[in-house]
Amino acid sequence: MSIFEAKEFWSVNISNNEEFDGNSICIDNIDNESPPKNKICVSSFSGMLRIYEPSFGVAKVENLLFEKSFVNPILQINSGSFIINSPDRQIVILQSKKLLVVNFSNLRTSASMKICYEHKLIRNGFNLCLGRIGERSYDIIFVQSVDGVISIFEGETCVNNIAINEIIFPGPIGFLSRKDSFVISNTSYEIECYGYNNLATIKSKSEDRKILHSWKINIGELIKDIKIIENKITKKQEIIVLTDSFLTLLDENGKIIFQKKLDFDPMAIHCYNIEDPGYCSNKLINMMYMISTSSDHVMIYKGLNLVWALKIFDTSVYLNIGEFSGTKGLIVSLSDNGRLSVFYLGMESVKNTKLILPPARNMDLRALSMETEKMLNTIQKYESGIEIIPAETLQITVEVNPSVIYDEDYQDNKIFHSDDKGKIVRGQVNMVMSYHGYEAENIKISIITPPNVLCDDSNFIIDRLNNFQPTISKVLSFKVFSNFFPTFSNVKAYATYSLKNEKGVTERSTQSTGLEFDLPLSLFVRATAITKETPYKITLCTDKNPLSVIINKLIKIIS
Fold first, then answer.
1. Which residues of the chain form CATH 2.60.40.10?
2. Which of 109, 390, 397, 447 is deepest in the core (most CB within 10 A)?
3. Is residue 321 classed as helix, strand or coil in its secondary structure?
4. Would you state the pLDDT for residue 501?
């Protein structure tokens, strides 16, 4: 057991029926309280927006300052100054067809919300980023649509809509404020940088001319996240690019500073600077970053070196550092199932200080060699794709009859699928259970069918299978409901059972096995004569010029 652990400061389970991701949260003094105090704003794909103020201890009702439903799913939120000539902070809310700028006040006493302005989006939104140009005192909003078009919003004005080449599906985006440049990932696993003035002034893509980029670099993998960090020593901005296998640090001109191979599956990343006197001897020492993993861990790095690793409470899709209740350096984490946690790094005491060794014994080298050879043989079979099943396992096999049978009795209510004469159509499956061991008893079989299928005997019990009766078979009959569309034909069969040893003693643990099979197509469809002429025609109309890739895909689907 590791002595490093996460010490919980405050946590809350937001909801069990909503979903979240790394764009669903931001931390800021969102109601412009004086003196400033951070709040955590959390949105969900169900359209809910909540604002929390954490305090040390168990979550209380008063920690939730605001809650409102925006009806449609919220794709991303962020905080900034979006009102010209106003120092106040607001929240920008991105929905599929709408962009909202919302102002909050007096969250602690009488909470109030005001929509400052909103933009109707021509295309479906995907994500956004913020940037401040030159000496402007407000933030500009960059919205990326699902087809890769960038929309620039400056206050209540839509500056431009640009379709950047080489982008078929959207990816992470960022903004370099020192360069007034926009950083985006394209479909070719590349990072591209475009100047703001170039994007803001370019005309519509009717001329079909290529937009020139400032620089471009190939990362080689699908990019999961892009973070822009301010280097406090060099006074320059740096770009951290996270993929499934690598972490790459670029300077603001697109040159690689370092690249690190990751031996885990990363989920989220947060970067920050520290002031370090040894910066002159190690140019990377002032940068730190933490990465959450799919195995519920947080790995903290200083430059290229891992300095801390700890187990957390859930798989985190968002990491950040904030100050709450006067305590600095608290880590904020959000999971996709809605667990919001605020914690800090800690250590647990080592309880057993004495090392207790087991008593020594003579090793049987022959038995060890046989066991090693057996294990290697098992590994080779597994790697070659051979299914390895323990000897004392209940085997279930099925024989699906490709043809159907018809009931002699007629039906008047037409509940089940029938032929032209009103006879119910049935499909038959012969299920065979076999066990080669001393004895398996209390065998419970469960048949799970799709919603449109009914099994006449979905649950039954077999008393026992042993050396005297190692095999038993049962014929299952399936019918199809006539008022359901036949979307699925897959049936699952599960068996639970107990084993007895040679002394007749039943094992305490319950064994289980299962399999899946498909019902015949003839149970769902009816043969008909071939028509030479097509009676239907499909016409597609659009007010935009679609991408050629989409047109070719539609043609393939229709044909």
1. 395-523
2. 447
3. strand
4. 77
